[in-house]
Amino acid sequence: MMLRAARILGLSAATLLFSASVSAQLLPHQLTNTLAAQAPELNPSVLNKALSAMQCATNHGMEPADRLAVIDFSLPSTEKRLWIFDLARQELILEELVAHGNRSGENYATDFSNIVGSHQSSIGLFRTQESYFGRHGYSLRMDGLEPGINDKARERAIVIHAADYVDPEWIERQGRIGRSQGCPAVRQDVVELVVDNLKGGQFLFTYYPDPQWLQSSAFLNCQPQRVAQYVAPFSRSRQGS
């Protein structure tokens, strides 16, 4: 009788573990459908990649986040290509213009870098960190989670800040908005909303269909050992307000 009970308990535990695993695998797809309906201009495939990369990070050691920002650098700078989502409410908070680096391209960003002084944008998964007041005013620091792809973000001073060149009037004059030195700069009118929603340990995912990155990213392909190693340095104590 005791042996039978133990087997039943063991089977139940395995069933629950299997169910949790399946649910975890399905979660990005479920969220994609919900969030994509609120952001029809965002490619559902890009959104799904962002959610999957984020979930891979949280499944292997990183604290969950309340919000997720997605930047699709395959879109021109003349289009709104930054989205911020409230994950708990499953709601779209903001859809906005965002600049890319002045050596990444003209209206379209095509070149990306992790090198200090490159003035190019970086792709991949980031963890946002502390807000601060600097030479661009209210700004937000972040750390890149992908070695060789974006992990020099803090050293490069890649931050979210406001810029007067992120303005629709620039589109009329130059056919694009202005460009940064690699930072995802936003309009002055929205910087407070952006920083306040993303500070303190949220996720930012910047996308471009770079074949090498798509094939090698530990987060996009969810490689547990590599991901656990990458996220280990980013504890809750490092995140500020």
Overall 3D form: globular
Rg (CA only): 19 Å
Name the structural class: alpha+beta
Largest sheet: 7 strands, mixed
- The rounded distance between the terminal residues' Cα atoms is 56 Å
Strand order of the largest sheet: 3-2-1-7-4-5-6
Roughly what is the average pLDDT, rounded to an integer? 88
Short descriptors:
241 residues, alpha+beta, seven-stranded mixed beta sheet, 7 strands, globular, disordered N terminus
What would your notes on this structure say?
This protein is of the alpha+beta class. The chain has helices at residues 2-36, 44-59, 168-174, 191-198, 211-216, 224-231; strands at residues 67-72, 82-86, 91-96, 124-134, 137-144, 159-160, 203-207. A seven-stranded mixed β-sheet has the order 3-2-1-7-4-5-6. Helix 1 (2-36) packs antiparallel against helix 2 (44-59).
Please describe the topology of this protein.
Blueprint: H1 2-36, H2 44-59, E1 67-72, E2 82-86, E3 91-96, E4 124-134, E5 137-144, E6 159-160, H3 168-174, H4 191-198, E7 203-207, H5 211-216, H6 224-231
Parallel strand pairs: 1-7
Antiparallel strand pairs: 1-2, 2-3, 4-5, 4-7, 5-6
Write a concise synopsis of the structure shown.
33% of the residues lie in helices and 18% in strands.
